[in-house]
């Protein structure tokens, strides 16, 4: 991998100016190249294997998101970091490390670019701000819950130090019920972490208290309220996949509502079943409706709720948990794993 920063843009002078200022600030520790078309970009990428690509989605010949996907899936490259900007919406197969929507917020772009370059050249951990955020992030990860009949654990593997994913679960002993949620903010930096930890999580947990006390009649209604909140946060809301769940352990009944999390996984009699979920992603449509689903899981030995980063690796044929965590190339990886020790006609097992 070279120390090249490649900007691919046909009309954005602002991005080129910010990158030129960055090169001066970091004493020319990287080479800056600017090209105007997707074809030129692919030629440069093949020849130089740059460390960072900053790609305008609105190119004259090839969509920037297609360039990003080609780069991320190219086996000969060393997984360069990709910034993709001038997006109007996010497609499910879009692959990049940071996304910036139209119109470009140059202050946000500059902050994230300089954070990236700090990681590369200045060891930003010594400054303390990122280190403190990592410690805070680690403190929020829930611990194992284990009883004679079930256990709940998690996988939480940031793409690089900080994650935009969030998850939590808890056991209500009085009602013998499990509650929890999982979501996936765009990006893998301190801004994504701040959005997740300090804006989205407090709203979810406040709303869950309302759900548990009966203020919301269903997880559908609960999810719709979260969608309203996402739109209220920003006039150009970040698309946020999310899943809410409730398990009545007395009836062994699972109730869940997905907003953009494509699947949940249920293991029955040693075979993993993929349950498709078809609802709008949060932040996509202001008046979107969300459907909760209910099913008996008395014969299940395992339930897995996973982020896109986790599920994408499973779709690639990976089945070993350690391999999933260690090979997380394109995204944060997170999952909630429920194991039942007393499944009828089933047995506990690993993914």
TrEMBL record:
Keyword Phosphoprotein (UniProt): yes
GO biological process: phosphorelay signal transduction system
Modified residues (4-aspartylphosphate): 56
InterPro entries (alphabetical): CheY-like_superfamily (IPR011006), PPM-type-like_dom_sf (IPR036457), PPM-type_phosphatase-like_dom (IPR001932), Sig_transdc_resp-reg_receiver (IPR001789)
Keywords from the named record: Phosphoprotein
Entry-linked Pfam families: SpoIIE (PF07228)
Endpoints of the signal sequence: none
This protein's name: Response regulatory domain-containing protein
Organism: Anaerovibrio lipolyticus
């Amino acid at each position: 991998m070279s120390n090249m920063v490649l900007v691919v843009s046909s009309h954005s002078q602002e991005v080129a100016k910010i990158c030129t200022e960055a090169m001066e600030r970091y004493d020319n520790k990287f080479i800056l190249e600017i090209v105007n078309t997707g074809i030129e970009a692919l030629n440069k990428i093949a020849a130089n294997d740059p460390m960072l690509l900053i790609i305008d989605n609105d190119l004259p010949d090839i969509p920037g998101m297609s360039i990003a996907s080609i780069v991320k899936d190219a086996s000969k490259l060393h997984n360069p970091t990709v910034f993709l900007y001038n997006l109007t919406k996010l497609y499910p197969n879009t692959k990049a490390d940071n996304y910036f929507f139209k119109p470009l917020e140059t202050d946000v772009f500059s902050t994230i670019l300089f954070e990236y370059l700090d990681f590369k050249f200045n060891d930003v951990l010594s400054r303390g701000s990122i280190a403190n955020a990592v410690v805070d992030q680690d403190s929020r990860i829930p611990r194992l819950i284990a009883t004679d009949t079930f256990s709940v654990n998690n996988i939480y593997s940031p793409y690089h130090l900080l994650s935009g994913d969030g998850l939590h679960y808890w056991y209500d002993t009085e009602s013998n019920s499990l509650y929890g949620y999982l979501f996936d903010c765009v990006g893998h930096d301190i801004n994504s972490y701040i959005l997740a930890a300090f804006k989205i999580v407090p709203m979810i947990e406040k709303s869950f208290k309302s759900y548990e006390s009966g203020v919301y009649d269903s997880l559908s209604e609960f999810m719709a309220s979260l969608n309203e909140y996402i739109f209220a946060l920003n006039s150009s809301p970040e698309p946020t996949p999310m899943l809410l769940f409730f398990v009545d352990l007395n009836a062994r009944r699972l109730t869940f509502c997905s907003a953009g999390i494509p699947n949940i996984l249920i293991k029955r009699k040693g075979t993993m079943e993929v349950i498709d979920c078809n609802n709008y992603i949060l932040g996509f449509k202001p008046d979107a409706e969300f459907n909760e689903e209910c099913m008996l899981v008395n014969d299940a030995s395992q339930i897995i709720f996973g982020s896109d980063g986790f599920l994408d690796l499973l779709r690639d044929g990976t089945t070993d948990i350690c391999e999933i965590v260690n090979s997380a190339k394109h995204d944060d990886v997170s999952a909630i794993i429920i194991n039942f020790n007393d499944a009828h006609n089933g047995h506990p097992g690993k993914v």
